[in-house]
Amino acid sequence: MNTGTIKAAAGLFICCMLGILSNAWAQESADKLSQAKHKQRLASRAHLENHPFTGFGQEYINFKNKLSDELGLQWGVDVSYLIQRGAPGGKQTSVQGIYYPYANWTLFKDRAAGSGEINFSYNLSHYWGASGVTLQDRLNVASAQNDYTSNQKIFFELSYTHTLPGEWDWLSVTAGQFPLSNFDGTTYLDNQQTALMNFALSQNATSAYPSASMGAYVQAQNDLFSVAAGYQDASNVSGQTARLSSAFDGKYTAFASLSWTPSFKLGAGQYSFLYYYQPSVSAQPENVNGWSFNAQQNIGERWAVFGRANGSTGGVVGIKNSYAAGAALLNPFERNPQDAITVGIAHNRLSAKGLGYPVEMRGSETALEVQWVIGIGKFVTVTPDLQFYPRAALNPGQGVTTVAGLRTTVML
After folding, report:
1. Is residue 93 within 8 Å of 403, Cβ to Cβ?
2. What is the CATH number of the domain that holds 322?
3. Is the separation of the CB atoms in 381 and 375 below 8 Å?
4. What is the spatial distance between Cα 142 and Cα 120, in angstroms, rounded to a whole number?
5. CA–CA dist 145, 310 (Å, integer)
6. What pairs with residue 161 in β-bridges?
7. How many domains would you assign to the chain?
8. Which residues are registered as beta bridge partners of 254?
9. Helix, coil or strand: residue 144
């Protein structure tokens, strides 16, 4: 697919969707539903911080609220430490730290000029002792025991979003560095720091798009629907830096996303679909078409069920199709709103090419995970976690593989 075709397809998609839905969006333009993951974190944190179950740390919360009210600045930082050990063959303990600062700065809100905001987020993961890669290799599993198995730096986002004024305030344009994962995931299947940890239960396990890259997209949204389409620099696969040098070289990742966030009598829901095309670049020398469907449905105030299905063509990644589902019991003892008992299961169809043509390999692998998130006040959670692989993909005769973990997360 050449550059002209990508641009034409994206333009046609946008025009068709805007033409069909513009009347509905013009009539309904309340607070918008954000795709940015760090803005979802900000909304979640604000809800928790305003909950009256404890007054500890209220002065700090008031300070953050003052910055938001007076400067339009919202920010946070999530720090987590994860200890994991596996059997059989784990031998060493893996200790991982993740540091995730994020911010949203509303520069101006003016009906004549519209509104503008800057979004920022960064991810740093670091290991002490055995790395996640070492533990995964010793366990002979294809789907890793967590989302970041090595020391990693990802400049997730530094972007500017401009929302149009007046009756067009349902339409926005974003440009800069951003991740496609903003459009791919739900609360319980998308954040290793606060939710499930297994690779196939904490992200799109089949994704071949860049971790983050320079680009732009157009988004139309109201309280119920969101449609987005755009492109990225395809060559900055790692997303380690916000790189302009290759941003206009002609290799572009094209994507389109549709999401629906209804509120039923039983509870709020979140449903989305993402399609993307990743061209062949030096870091990933193969054209890839990928898709991802995500769903989450709350059932009253105590339960949430969720699932995802995704896939990609070619042999760039080791998992070519992944299907995940699970459920969470929220605040089971009415002690702390952060408390949750969560169970998830993922079934992955594997690619021999993506795994480097191993000597022994099963065609698929299943991972089961159960965890208990225990809230401590409004800022800390401690989470014991167990993962089970009935049969390890890279050693068919190994039997049940187990990974035990303990995570501590501080959210400021």
Report:
1. no
2. 2.40.160.180
3. yes
4. 32
5. 19
6. 117, 174
7. 1
8. 231, 277
9. coil
How far is the C-alpha of 213 from the C-alpha of 226, rounded, in Å?
Answer: 22
The pLDDT of 222-231, averaged and rounded, is: 94
pTM for this entry: 0.88
Structure tokens given for 218: 């157009």
- Provide the domain limits for residue 32: 3-411
Count of other CB atoms within 10 angstroms of residue 195: 23
Cα–Cα distance measured from residue 185 to residue 203, given in angstroms and rounded to the nearest whole number: 7
Residue 65 has pLDDT above 70, yes or no: yes
| CA terminus-to-terminus distance, the chain | 44
Residues 154, 9 contacting (CB under 8 angstroms): no
What the block records as the tokens of 369 is 């995970």
Return the bridge partners of 110, or none.
114
Residues 88-143: tens digit of each pLDDT: 977 789 999 999 999 999 999 887 889 999 999 999 999 998 999 999 999 999 99
Quote the CA–CA distance of 247 and 296 in Å, as a whole number. 34
Tokens, residue 47: 């809800």
